[in-house]
User: Fold this.
Amino acid sequence: MSIVRGLILALIVVWPVQASQAADLPPSTEVMCRAGEDAWLSTSLFFGRNISDGGTVSDADWLGFVETEIALRFPGGFTVIDGNGF
Assistant:
């Protein structure tokens, strides 16, 4: 067996073991900020207003959804940004 084949075989055997061990580690919860800065969390949700049968969600229906579904889950506030995709 050539050296290259031996190295490839070793890599094939060792790599999955290393990856599975890394996956077992808990995520880091320590947040590092510079002095005077505060950590913050950002959540992004994307909603389209096209309906699969060809219609669109009206402004009133969209605002009703925001008020009854989204606002209740973000009591600290949130921002809605309109965008156009092409």
Notes: The chain has two helices and no strands.
